[in-house]
Amino acid sequence: MKYDTVPDIEMNSLFLSFGSKKVLDNFSLRVYPGMKVLIRGRSGAGKTSLFNCLLGFVRPQRGEIFIKGKKLSPSSIWEIRQKLAFVAQEPDLGTGKVREVIERPFSYKANRYLSGNLGKLQEMWDLFLLDTTLLEKDIRSLSGGEKQRAAIVLALLLDRPVLLLDEASSALDRDSKQAVSDYLRKCEDRTILAISHDEEWASCCDSKIDLLEGKAVSGK
Fold it and tell me: How far apart are CA 13 and CA 125, in angstroms?
């Protein structure tokens, strides 16, 4: 891992508040290509707000964000989102059969060149301990843990260089968590910023950051 390269994620002196509540206070972080970084903090510490800033859904009052060297701004947000994949704790995957839901994004013009990646779907499905029969079921019939794994598979097939995971394995059993974390740890070309309290993530991340009173504190 070369830290003399341009960071995939760079946040400089972010300040964000909602009314009198200070959420981020001079928050800075650099995540270099291939790094796996864990963000921890108590409920309400600002972890999800941090991700919302990275995705352009929330604009901090001060500070700058760069994704792969490009400054996040209203004019660049759509281009930047093509470099990010986001998986939420409760993924909104739309409607239809699971296979249709996963194939749908590859019909969009921006993703058609990636349609060959769908050939890896069964392999990924097996690696994440998902039953093949689920692919023909209605997405709404899946359990929380199955939806989380389906969302992670989709994010990986879309081949975005930066993966943002917000408690994306919280509903998984221990074996499934281990299968997902083992796979992602081996993805040397994938930069991952994860919010999680799971031990499996802590063991596979290069760096751990505690979000304390809006600031980044190196964790153990």
Answer: 40
Domain residues for 89? 9-218
Distance CA 40, CA 211 (A): 6
Strand partners, 167: none
Residue with tokens 């991700």: 51
Q: What is the pLDDT of residue 220?
A: 62
Q: What predicted TM-score, i.e. pTM, was given to this entire model?
A: 0.92
Contact by Cβ (8 Å): 56, 22: no
> Tens of pLDDT along 30-56?
999 999 999 998 888 899 999 999 999
Q: CATH number for the domain including 34?
A: 3.40.50.300
Distance between CA 169 and CA 178 in Å, rounded? Answer: 10
DSSP state of 61: S
Q: Is residue 202 part of a domain?
A: yes
